[in-house]
Amino acid sequence: MYMDVLLNEDDNSTVNGLYILHDMKGFSLGYVKHLTPALCKKVILSVQNAYPFRLKGIYCINTPAIYDVFISMFTPFFNEKLRSRFKVFKEDAAEKFHEYIPQKVLPKEYGGNAGPMSKINGNIPLKIYK
User: Fold this and answer.
1) Domains of the chain, with CATH numbers?
2) Which segments within the chain are labelled E, that is strand?
3) Average pLDDT in the 16-37 region?
4) Which end of the chain, C or N, has fewer beta carbons within 10 A?
5) Its pTM surpasses 0.90
């Protein structure tokens, strides 16, 4: 839904591309039981084929080692280009993602210079839950 709002309201996101940063801190194994291979495939295929965004990278940070199984459910559905732009950083290596995403586009909470997440997100969360 977040990407739908961006698509409708932010031309910059389609022109310049997107970095998707997924912080897995606090992610519970309870979520995994809701993910079927069919759902994973639908999500990945829609993100990589249906949305007109240039995905510059998808990064999972603070990922506990046990989630390798969870992540392996997604990766078979990635095309070659997306597979090369997908990176996982364990909890002890979370700061290494700075090598892949420029600090100028990262929120302050992740060591970047783009300002706080509340400023970057603006009122998008309100539009999602409306």
Assistant:
1) 2-128 (3.40.525.10)
2) 18-23, 55-63, 86-90
3) 81
4) C
5) no
